[in-house]
Design brief:
The protein is of the alpha/beta class. Helices cover 39% and strands 16% of the residues. It has 6 helices and 6 strands. Helix 2 crosses helix 3. The longest helix is centred in the last third of the chain and has 18 residues.
């Protein structure tokens, strides 16, 4: 089975993110879900992003890197929205990555180097009208990644919700979230 490092979104390590990691564990995978916000969870995304901004986005990413350093190299890196930053960076720069699951965000590959690493499969998931994912260029970065990589997939879901995978948030979309989860499990079974 796969070993997965799960990075939370801008609200913090919510019960919904912990539940997603628990579901991976129940499916037989090892899942780690570090708290990049040091115990803080925010009711609104604006508050959470404000905290990340005041702490420093580089600091938040560095906390993700530090969490990975305590684990073996052969990980799958999974990030939700803000958590895509450390997940994508580690998948691109830490030797031994088994894969990456970038959910509701994607940054240009050039952010962390010149090219996506050979032999590291990746999936990107997002809603086609999400103002953050579709409206701020993440979907374009995802399309470029798929074109440039030998083993990359982009899955677009109908809707305009951001953080649609967290069952504890009002933006949760059960149908789309279950599709993401099923595809994540298939990906993990393939790379394990």
């Amino acid at each position: 089975m796969a070993e997965v490092l799960v990075f939370h979104h801008g609200h913090g390590l919510t019960a919904g993110v912990r539940e997603f990691a628990d579901r991976l564990r129940r499916a037989g995978h090892t899942a780690h879900a570090p708290d990049l916000y040091e115990g803080k969870v925010f009711d609104t995304l604006d508050e959470g992003i404000g905290y990340a901004g005041s702490a420093g986005f580089d600091t938040i990413t560095a906390r993700g890197v530090a969490a990975a350093e305590e684990l073996p190299a052969g990980l799958v890196y999974l990030g939700f929205s803000l958590g895509v930053m450390p997940a994508q960076m580690l998948a691109q720069t830490r030797p031994g990555a088994k894969g990456a699951l970038l959910i509701e965000a994607c940054v240009p590959v050039s952010e962390f180097g010149g090219a996506w690493p050979e032999g590291v499969p990746v999936q990107v998931h997002g809603m086609d009208a999400d103002p953050f994912f579709a409206g701020e260029g993440d979907v374009d970065a995802a399309r470029a990644l798929v074109e440039a990589s030998g083993d990359a997939e982009l899955f677009l879901y109908p809707g305009d919700r951001h953080l649609f995978n967290d069952s504890t948030l009002p933006s949760w979309d059960r149908r789309a979230a279950e599709q993401v989860y099923a595809r994540v499990l298939g990906f993990l079974d393939r790379v394990a």
